[in-house]
Structure formats: structure tokens, C-alpha cells
Amino acid sequence: RKEVEQDPGPFNVPEGATVAFNCTYSNSASQSFFWYRQDCRKEPKLLMSVYSSGNEDGRFTAQLNRASQYISLLIRDSKLSDSATYLCVTGTASKLTFGTGTRLQVTL
Amino acid sequence: NAGVMQNPRHLVRRRGQEARLRCSPMKGHSHVYWYRQLPEEGLKFMVYLQKENIIDESGMPKERFSAEFPKEGPSILRIQQVVRGDSAAYFCASSPPTGGPNQPQHFGDGTRLSIL
Q1: 3-state secondary structure (DSSP) of residue B84
Q2: Residue B85 above 60 pLDDT?
């Protein structure tokens, strides 16, 4: 079983739609949580950190449920430029562990 | 650009040769991490280094791979006697001195290694 599990997608949504991604992790020692995005053949870029209380950054909202070991990302009012692979990431004292990513394709 | 700098961007080697990948962290960052991404797969942690110290190398293959982060100069990921299966994108990331890997990590553009 992978340490961080994500639905690979792809999620094909029209512009303006709301889309949600989920992720589960198995390492209960995980201390930090992030969403990164990765465009095709490019480096991962930090989208946002995820906190237990939930946090929002513009159109993006992230939630963390430590009891269920579950992380989510909600994107409202999708833009064409949101098309990318979204990586769920957990961190321990020594390393980050990446999910394989969920592909999002936003269409006209 | 004060971001994480990796070079070369692309590296082609024949089987049996050595590959050296370089990474200079962001200014002010003293923690360096190397990841490997195989085609159509996720990033896999390889090694975490601070200046002159390897902190965690649990993701490094036992043979042919080594990493260093000397007191002066960039971090180097070295692959000896490369094989076709080493073809991948190798990403370096860095984070500030406080907080370690729990801090968000900032990535370089990566080195695409192709083995002929």
C-alpha cells in the first residue's frame, strides 16, 4: 500500500466548475501536510500548506482530518490555468512523501 | 533568480558512464533534498543533506548512488555505472535552517537524465 494515496484522475471539468480532490495517508507520524502542483515535465510548486483547522487561499481550500488521515483540496471557479497534476504531500521529521498526483484538466 | 538552481537541465550518458547532478539551494537555505521521478510516476525521496552531513539516505539505492553537500559549493548527486533504469527526472529541493523537512520545500527545475 502506498504511503500517500490519491485518485490519479484525470478530472475533466469545465471552466467555472468546483472540483475536489482527496488523499489518504498511512503514516500516523506525519507532522506536516501540503498540496503541490506540477505542470507537465516541470518542477513541483507549493500550492498551500494544510492545517488541522482548515485553510483557504483565494479559490483554494484545504482540509485535514488527522483522525481519518485524510486530506482534501477544493478548487472553486476553475480556470484553464488550473490544469495540472495536484500532489498530496505529507512530512515527517526527516522527509516529505509525495502522492502520485491527481490530474486536472479544465476545459472551455 | 535566487531560487534552487540545478544543472545541467538535461544530461545524456551511455550505460556504464558516471552522471553528476548539481544543486545550489536557495539563498539562506541549508537543507537539501534529492528526489527522483520516473516517467508517469510520483516523486520518490532519495536523500536529505545538510552542510557536510547526510541526515537521511533511506531512499538511496544501496549501490552506485551517492550524494554530498560540501561546506563550499553545490550539492552533488553522483550515479556511477549508469543503467537504463536510471533514466528519470532528478529534482533537488531546499528548505530554511529552521524546521527541517516539515517546512515547505522549494524545488529546482530538475535534471532530466537519459541513458542510451
Answers
A1: helix
A2: yes
* 3-class SS of residue A92: coil
Which regions of chain A are under pLDDT 70? none
Q: Rounded mean pLDDT of B101-108?
A: 82
Give the Cα separation of A51 and A49 in Å (integer): 7
Do A39 and A56 meet the contact criterion of CB atoms below 8 Å apart? no
Nearest-by-Cβ selection for A32 from B42, B55, B102: B102
Question: For residues B5 and B74, what is the distance between their CA atoms, to the nearest angstrom?
Answer: 9
Q: Is the pLDDT of residue B42 over 90?
A: no
A102-107 and A11-14 as β-strands: parallel, antiparallel, unpaired?
A: parallel
| Nearest residue in chain A measured CA to CA from B47 | A95
Best of A49, A95, A97, A102 to mutate (most B CBs within 10 Å, chain B): A95
Whether pLDDT at B99 is above 70: no
Contact B104 A34 (CB under 8 A): yes
- Chain B, 73 to 92: residues with Cβ < 8 Å from chain A are 89, 91
Residues 12-31 of B with CB under 8 A from A: none
- Of A36, A30, A54, A12, whose CA–CA distance to A99 is shortest? A36
d(CA B50, CA B98): 12
Q: What is the DSSP string of A6-64?
A: E----EEEETT--EEEEEEE--TT--EEEEEEE-TTS--EEEEE--TT-EEETTEEEEE
